[in-house]
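**Protein record**
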Amino acid sequence: MNDTRLYEQILGIESPWSVRSVTLKKDEGSIEVDVACSETMWGCPECGLRMHVHAWEQRRWRHLDSCQYKTILVANVPRVKCDKHGTQMVKVPWAEPGSRFTAWFERLAIDVLQECSTAAGCEILRITWDQADGIKQRAINRGLARRQAVPVKRLCVDEKAVGWGHQYVTIVSCADGGKTRVLAIEDDREENSLNRFWRTLTPEHREAVEAVSMDMWEAFRNSTLRYVPGAAEKIVYDNFHLARYMNRAVDEVRRAEHEVKQGDTVSPLKGTRQLWLYGLENVPRKWAARFRELRALATKTARAWKVKELFRSFWACADPADATEFFRKWYRDAIATRLEPIKKVARMFKKHWANIVTFFRHHLSNAHAEGINSRIQHLIQQACGYRNRDRFKRDVLFHLGGLDLHPAIVQ
């Protein structure tokens, strides 16, 4: 098999296209494949009306490497002049319109760029940053165009701090199926931020929502109640955020008790913040003896920690009735501590009980959203921050949107 026939097979080129010659340019580190076209009648890319070729224009595309050499396709591409759509370049079978890379190369580049930083991807692929960014932007546009409006049943709503100061975005992710994906990223964390997402769904799709996990942010709750039918029974307050409220309350008690003991030569509570955040089974062995002594010395903090530990067992309840009975007893013990930070959190939980107990009907939490947030933070660090908010959103969709990014391959 000669070189031209070999590359026709490799590239999947068929009539009216053919490989005319293959040239090794060793000094440039490339192999140039010259592709010719024998057809003189083409259809308009917009309307399909066939007409004679108006002109020819030479184009170049980067293909997958041949061994250690870059492979470059060179072809004179026909242009047709349509009365309705003007002069148009016909579509070539190996690349998408506007791209200077073959579909096979773009598929490889997308896979590489999803696994590493853009700078590292450029080094591996031997392309420039602008070329890599062009591949990413075309992939995102392709994925968004292919995304189908299908009903989603289980959603997670969370905010993510971005940039300096109190700058946030609202992230809506879908927890249906095995892999969580980002559905929308909206500016700020206001009620209108989530409103914008709900408005993109049809009334039928909003009604199909079965559960929405969120923290106790009132703006998210109000928006969901406004747009989702029966939302009062579908909102689930995330157990991670509830545990965080308890941890903060324990730390407030610790700090208050630490201030009282400042008269001592060495306060036993100094530097113990992390110890009180551990669950009993997670206390490191080297600190176990000290922690036992602390629980005997710091009586108020120990009482707060005991209530916090007791609340962890709440999530093991079998059903809403069991959870209600457990919470009734726990609430009584929390109020009996006479520790204001603990009492404040207990009263807050009681106030929002209706959307805490829904966990035992839907078994949904923001664990999926927290995983998304962790990966977003990694993207921010990898990019050394984003100056452009739109670029940040598109990067999140590229990596976490669950989009169909790859160009189609013409066989």
Notes: The first helix runs from residue 3 to 11.
